[in-house]
Design goal:
10 helices; Rossmann fold; alpha/beta
Length: 252
């Protein structure tokens, strides 16, 4: 996808991958509509990259549709959606508070399905557009203690794959970005910090560069780090071996 002159809506741009991606897109000549919940963080980002800040909470009913309306009203159109916003939860599923469960289902999956539904008809009409979904290795393999988070990312993954098949030939590209551990505030917010020395967390900037490259080349999917394809391949081809290894080394 040609980014120079494109209008890109990035959800979850207040911090982490979303913030870094917004900056990288702007450096490529895109007009960025930066969405997030942190008004001050969005304002500072908007000042730095000349973006349009839109504050909103995707866990709230109707927020996705309102965001789509506000984005089109602000910029006239949306050529690219980077569906990045999300939240996590780490802990036993049986003890998970219902409000946290609902928040994950809404922010990680339902809101981006609804946001896509609101934006994609115009993309199809223009015969030009891009949809980039930030999922997680957890959605490809499962993670102990993160059942709902993994399920939402797996759902977004399947949604994107299905949409790619459906939109073939329309001019709308669909890509899935599958990151592993990234050095952001996500782990603190989910309720359990990342406590391993390996794999070493990637920087948000390097992950954003890879994500934007995926968009530019219309790639179907990209893993970062690349070696994450290996456990996914083992799970698909030798599931019993994968489960033994995951039982020994799994968790996060």
């Amino acid at each position: 996808m040609q980014l120079d002159g494109a209008v890109a809506l990035v959800t979850g741009a207040s911090s982490g991958i979303g913030r870094a991606t917004a900056a990288t897109l702007a450096s490529k000549g895109a007009l960025v509509i930066a969405h997030g919940r942190d008004r001050a963080a969005l304002a500072s980002l908007a000042d730095r990259i000349d973006a349009i800040p839109l504050v909103g909470d995707l866990t709230v009913a109707g927020a996705a549709e309102r965001l789509a309306e506000e984005a089109v009203e602000a910029a006239g159109r949306v050529d690219l959606l980077v569906a990045n916003a999300g939240c996590g939860y780490a802990g036993p599923f049986a003890a998970m508070p219902t409000d946290r469960l609902d928040a994950l289902l809404s922010a990680n999956l339902a809101a981006h399905v609804r946001l896509t539904r609101a934006l994609v008809p115009a993309m199809i009409g223009r015969k030009r557009g891009g949809l980039a979904y930030v999922t997680s290795i957890a959605g490809r393999t499962g993670v102990a203690g993160e059942a709902v988070y993994a399920a939402t990312k797996a759902g977004l993954d399947a949604f994107a794959e299905s949409l790619r098949l459906e939109l073939r030939g329309t001019g709308v590209a669909v890509g899935v970005f599958v990151p592993g551990v990234v050095a952001t505030r996500f782990f603190d917010r989910r309720g359990r910090p990342y406590g391993r020395t390996r794999p070493r967390p990637l920087s948000a900037a390097s992950v954003a560069d890879a994500l934007v490259r995926m968009i530019e080349t219309d790639a179907a999917e990209v893993y970062r780090p690349r070696w994450l394809r290996l456990p996914v391949a083992i799970r698909g081809t030798v599931p019993a071996l994968y489960r033994r290894l995951a039982g020994r080394y799994g968790g996060s």
